[in-house]
Amino acid sequence: MQQRIAKTDQFHFRDGEKWSPLPHWAHFFISLGASLWSVRSPTHRVVAALSVPTPSYAAAFVSLGRVLSEPIVEPERSALDNHFETLLALPAQTPLIYFNGEALYHGPFLGAYTHDHSTMIRMGIRGGSCMVPKERCLLVEIQPESEKGRSTSAGGRLRNPKPFVSHFFELVEHYRVLCSTSKAVVIIGEQNRLRNEIVESPLAVINGEGYIEGTLQDLVRIGKFANGAIGCRAEVHARSRDHAVQLDGRPERSPLVVLDGASAYLRWAHQFPSADILGILAATDSEYDLALDAANSQYLARDCECSLPNLKSSVPGIELMAHTEVRR
Description:
The chain has ten helices and 16 strands. The chain folds into two domains: 2-73 and 182-326, no CATH class; 77-142, SH3 type barrels (Roll), CATH 2.30.30. The strands form three sheets. A seven-stranded mixed sheet has the order 12-9-13-14-3-16-15, with helices on both faces. It has a five-stranded antiparallel sheet with strand order 7-6-5-4-8. By secondary structure, the chain is of the alpha+beta class.
């Protein structure tokens, strides 16, 4: 996991007609996301407030650091059950894609096959057929259709990863990510700005042949900005709306809740008493002073300080407070 974080040092952003190294403040945000993961505790949660001149890219890069730091866990049993039942209900000849651990296979759904009281998905492949057991069903999906109604392998979860993604994840790791049902981060903030920063802003890393392009979405995998929920490592919710945020009750699986903006912090900071919290307070927010006072009050009532290891040095204008509280 630390190797993935180290590779972010190679990030470049589009600066006019050229690629320029990512600024230091961005690396600080990435290291903060990674550090918040490293200090997780089953009994105590981390509560942090970050004061920044502008909210631009803070939540995006913090989320990247968190996602790249977390181990890729096995999917929940409920995800296997639900997806398996969905596949079994498909009409015959529905085009499918299957990743067998080494390569992608395309072929029609041929129905269910039962052997020794075990039901499997039967799928046609070139020259024959294959059986996919239930425990591997998340590596099967319906082959997407193009605008002309023809099957295509360009979309969906199961496709060969971009070189940008392969720079951070090995092939098997990549498909484990696609089958993951756990969220690393939940962001409550301004969705349009986050979409621009995470989905639409190009990045690149350097390899021996030049620049490999991608976006933060390739790695962070925001569910709302992707096709399908399985395999998404993060979620975004509008800070202006009431919503039900699903958090895993287990500390080792619970996501980091990022409250992106003063209004999000004031409205939602007390809604997640068992989750790790990061409030991003921008000086440009109209409610900045009020949110900062609330953060200071909570910090003064802290159980103890929180030391964040491997945190890169900050830059002028960015201040961080962090403490721990008993999970409730």
